[in-house]
Structures are given as C-alpha cells and as structure tokens.
Amino acid sequence: MTAAGARPSGPADRQAIEAASQLAGLRHELDAWMTSAASRGPLEKHHSQVRSLVTTLRDYADAAEAALSAPASGYPLRDVILDMHHIWDFFRGKLLQRMVPWHRDFLDAADEMAWACYHPARAAGQAVPQPAGGGIGDDDNGGSPPLCFLSRTAAPLAVPRGEPLRPLLSDRAGLHTVRGAAAAGELPFPMVGLPWSQTEHIPALVLLAHEAGHHLHSELGLADELATTLAAAGLAERWPRSWQMESFADVCGVLACGEAYVGLLLDELAVLAGRSAGAAQAGNYPPMRRRGLLCLAALELTGFPARAALLRAEWLVRTHALTACGGDAPGRAPDPAAETDDAHRVAGLLLRTPLARLGGPPREVLANPELARLSEAAQFLLARMSSGTRDVRSVVAAAGLAFLRDPRGYALVGVHRQALREIIGLRPPGVRADQGEPAGSPATGQGRRRASGRDLFARVAAQYPPSR
C-alpha cells in the first residue's frame, strides 16, 4: 500500500533510498570519529590522522550523493559505497584497537614512543613530502607520526606513507567488488605493526625506535645523502647502498635507547640466526655480525666506550660459531678487525654527518638527552621506584635495560606495569597540533583532502561501466 498520491515504487527507488541511508550512516559515524579525536577525546593524539581520513571520506560521500541525485550517471552506488567502507575499514580497525581497555595502555605507550622518536626531526623544522598521488587524505603539513597497531607480525614492521594500500587489505578476495581494488590508493601516513604477543612486554617497544628510523629515512628522502656520504669515504663497496637504510634505522635506535637497543637487538639477531642459517641477513640487512658491530660502534661513539667494548667482545665470541658454520657470510673467512673498523667508520659518518633533509647531524637532532641516566633508571625500576626520567624513550629504554640485566627481577617486581604508568603519565594533554608541530595551513590541507576524496570516488567509480 502506498501513500495517497504517491507513485508506485520500484527496485530503483528502493536502491536509491537504501544508498541514501548508507551515506547518512557513514556521515554519522565520521562525525563520531571526529568527536573522539577532538581535545580530551579518547583519540586526541590521533587528531591529524583521523581528520585527514574523515575529511577525505566526507568528500567521497558528497561525490556519491551527487551521483545519487543524478540517475543518469549510472554508477552502481551499492558497490561504490561498499568499496569505500572496505578501504575505510583498514584504518577503522586499527583505530578501534585503542578502544579495547586491555590493549589501550600498550598502544598508547607505543604511540608515545613513536612520537618521541619522530618528533625531534619535526622540531628541527623538517616537514615531509606528500604522497606522489592517490593518497587517502593527508595531514596539513605532511608530518603525522606513525600510527601503531597490533598485527600478526613476529617483530615490529614499518609500513611507510605512500605504500600502495591494495596489497594490505585483509580480504583475500580483494575489495567487495574486485573492480574497485585498483582504486584503493596509498597510505596517507606512516604506520608500524606490533606483534600481538608483545602487549605485556614493554621492552619490545625499544625496537620501535628502529621502525621510526625507517620512517624518517623514507619520509625525508635520506637515501641519496647517505649513499653520497659513504661513497665519498670510500665505503660504497664495503657498506653497499642496500644496507644503508637498515643501518640508519639501527643508529636511530641507539640514539633513542642506547645500550638497551643494542642488547635487545643482539639477542634478537642471535635468535633469528639460531633458527636457520642466514636468517638474520635476509632482505637488505648487513650480515648479522657486522650489523651488531655497527650498533656497538654507535654506542661507543655516543659516549659509552667501556660498555661497547665489553659487549663487542661478547658479540664476537657469540657469533664465532655461527660464522664458522656459514650463519653470517658463507664462503668468506671472518675478519673481525676489518669488520670492526668498517663498522666504526660507518657509524661515525651516520652519527656526525650533517644531513640537509634532517636539519643537522643525526647525533645532534635525534639523540635522547637522557642516555647517560638509563643505567641508573633501570636500577630504580628494579627497586620498584620511578625511573626518574622525563623522556618516553628513556622509560622504555630503562625497562629494556632492567630486563636485560635482571629478567627474573624484571618480572618479579612488575617493571612492565610501572613503565606503562610512567609513559602514560608523561603524555601532555591535548592534540598533537598543540605540542610544537611546525605550523601548517589548515585551509590548504583541507583543500588537498577534499581533492583527495573527489579523486578517490572518481577512481573507484571509474572501475565500473555505467549502467544505463
């Protein structure tokens, strides 16, 4: 039965009303996300990330609504809306992890650690370039810190800004409609996946400093500067370009967490090498022994020569058997003296060479000013006291040192919980934009995001032949 005077409805009318309600539901959800990311909201530290996504998706919804009001467009709006939700769900799920009470503190701590490692380069005035094309939104000045999330990875994994989004989507069949897959676009901000298995082990966040170093390397475009620097020193062949990004990230780890980074990384490398010969040198990493020597050289050059010398001797003994059975450089006789010298030269260059895109030498721009206090801070934590530090990197590193030096004591006194409380206590209130970010132009940023939303809709809709 229809209302008096109403024309009979058909499938097209019902589909149009359903699409309108779906768009209304999306707008309602996006409004709620913006509220949650406002000052004093549960996601205030993710304000720029949420805003970039929401602004893009709102404009996508506007474009879909315009198509709905123009039936001649022939777009299959049901599919176009579902594709949009699939893309949005990639980000939605990672933000929602922070709403789970038993994971929230760990993820908040991870976010603070990522910010503490990332912020010094921003404080030096370095903005990062926007994705070359097809990104889902962007932030006002290209400087959102990495978004941390829990994943099934075995170790922390950096996913850079501008990475194609399509391969990261979880549905094995692609988007709801396969035609929309080609329009998925690129990540609008960097991300770091953390193992689900480490949520009760705060020392795992020490290695997050390495992933932040990856993001700085890619965001600031440091590859050419580093390659030129090492080539000028005659190290291009002995320390090839394929190793340099990982080496820079390792130096960033040492600058953030000192001995804690070195000790935990060496443990991890030994575990990987013990699982299968050559596992620790997979990908673009330096061979295991040399990677350890580089980190030890960086530790020495940042002011800890005695600890570096002791750990270096232990490391050379620890890796001798692995080298002999081909675990590091098969077919090559080990030459610890030459490899130690190379590592020392490379570490010195990576620490001290001014990098224009970074705003100075890494040691000056990125170093944690509390490195000399970490040993004392670890002892305090083991004594059920506050670490006495004021930098998130220091709290994480002190917890890592406590674990390295007295793992049983670490577990017995509950260092994990104490460190989490300290990190959360160090978070200043308010959104990141109020905490010393370089000034950007909100109007310009919103304009880019609106253009991104229209472009995203056009690319998704273009995958479908118009139905007339």
How are the elements arranged and paired?
Layout: H1 11-36, H2 47-68, H3 77-96, H4 101-123, E1 147-151, E2 157-159, E3 191-195, H5 208-220, H6 223-232, H7 241-257, H8 259-275, H9 288-301, H10 305-324, H11 336-352, H12 362-366, H13 374-382, H14 392-405, H15 407-413, H16 415-426, H17 442-461
Parallel strand pairs: 1-3
Antiparallel strand pairs: 2-3
Overview of the structural elements:
With 468 residues, the chain is mostly helical. It folds into two domains: 13-196 and 438-461, no CATH class; 198-426, no CATH class. The chain contains 17 helices and three strands. It has helices at 11-36, 47-68, 77-96, 101-123, 208-220, 223-232, 241-257, 259-275, 288-301, 305-324, 336-352, 362-366, 374-382, 392-405, 407-413, 415-426, 442-461, and strands at residues 147-151, 157-159, 191-195. A three-stranded mixed β-sheet has the order 1-3-2, with helices on one face. 46% of the residues are buried.
